[in-house]
Amino acid sequence: MWMFIISLIIPFLIWGPFFPDLIVSLSALVFLVYVIKKKKFYYFNNKPLIIFFIFCIYCILVSIFVAKDRMLSFESSLFYFRIGVFACLIWYLIDKNKKILSYFYYILVVCFSALILDSYIQFFTGINIIGLPKDGARLSSFFGDEFILGSYLSRLFPLLFALYLLKEKNQTELYFMNILFILLAGSIYISGERTAFFLFILSYVFIMIFLEKFTKLKIILSVFYLILIIVLTFSFKDVKNRMISSPANTIKKSIFTPEHDSLIRTAYNMFLDKPIFGHGPKMFRVICKDEKYATGVTPCMTHPHNFYVQLLAETGIIGFSFLFSAFAYVLYCAYRQFKSIVLRQKRYLTDYQVCLLAGILITVWPLTTNGNFFHNWLMIVYSLPVGFYLHSIYGKNRDNISF
Hints:
The protein is mainly alpha-helical. It is 70% helix and 0% strand.
């Protein structure tokens, strides 16, 4: 039952951050007590988790000694460690019973199927199956006022694909999943979320390059993706303007939109003022109002819409280095995998690990806009592939986890 409840975090993420954060917080607390009581500290005694916990402690110290509004800063830093504990919990649950893999897989399939079907209905009819309208060229499906349909699908796609590779499938399921993956690309594209579509393409290309098997699947998906995107682009003017014309005009001036550019410049000015420790977690929304830092058309929001710039402004070069080290690790693994392919040696990563690493890659990718680094919803989504990846490296039954 506990494993099923944990896997329900997938549909709860569609309804908002409250229930997923409740599940993460309570389950992390219970697991932490269990680890201490049973003295199973090996779940935390590994480099990734040690580095993460050091980062959490550092953020708390910055909130205490640097932040202008200590209590506001604590909202982001004080219990941030629960994300790492939750990732370890997933690792523990897979160790205990592989059934959790099937729970996550089938729930992901159901959620993806419902969202993809509903997004096409909303796109072609103007409203989804529960009566929610689309907003111009943007779709929300069951997310309502939150335009994160594409983000949800793109960020959880690598995890679904990883579990798909582990699953023992019959012919009917193979056909169904191939169709689902084809429609998935179109759904993310018509959602109107340019960043989400870019991250989907980034993870997909990463997976296709480093995947050892499934050559036929690679070709089929790539061909159909290309055809589907071309058809959607040239058949629907709103889609073309949103996904092609508008970004092309923006790139002529700068990589980001004028609004995002001004936020980044403001954050950079904050970093220059306190380059070592920053201004404290969650302080961008407070400090950006200061004329000393504010610049551009939209200099102030809750966050600067880029993880790396946000950490530079709020936690300084020290906090930034933790995130950059994660990016460097992904690049190192990609290099080792590429080297093993070229030299025709045993693959450094399994196909399952390649997919999970793709999920981590789109989390730490620096050259894109994204949400608040300390946002509960985002961090829960990001923690999921990390938990499965930790098990694939350190888990007791990591060599035999098909289901």
